UniProtKB/TrEMBL annotation:
UniProt keyword list: Membrane, Transmembrane, Transmembrane helix
Annotated source species: Actinophytocola oryzae
Record protein name field: Uncharacterized protein
UniProt entry tagged with the keyword Membrane: yes
Membrane spanning stretches: 6-26, 47-68, 74-96
Length: 106
């Protein structure tokens, strides 16, 4: 089986292949950008939910210990001091970040 193609037909075929390739690459880039944006937004909401849940747990335990009539002063100090230490560590670490979380090529 033999094909007789003119140079115009060959160039048209190469042009179609090149156009398909360029459109395919653009779609990949657009999909990658959308996935990155969705991932970062989900990360923020997930972190916010965990922070609120843990804060609620800490406040509940503090309220339970402080409202108890025979609360030992050392227990009250521990219940109020330990979360303050963890919060100060987390804030210090969050405010001294020197690298970005972006990966991949630009």
């Amino acid at each position: 089986m033999t094909f007789d193609l003119t140079p115009t037909e060959v160039l048209a075929g190469l042009g179609v292949l090149m156009t398909v390739f360029v459109v395919w690459r653009a779609g990949l880039r657009r999909a990658r950008r959308a996935a990155d944006a969705a991932r970062s937004g989900g990360r923020l909401l997930s972190l916010g939910g965990r922070v609120l849940a843990l804060a609620g747990l800490i406040v509940g335990v503090q309220w339970l210990v402080i409202s108890h009539p025979s609360a030992d002063p050392w227990l009250v100090l521990a219940v109020l001091g330990l979360p303050a230490l963890f919060a100060s560590y987390a804030l210090t670490k969050a405010l001294t970040v020197t690298t970005s979380d972006r990966g991949g090529r630009r």
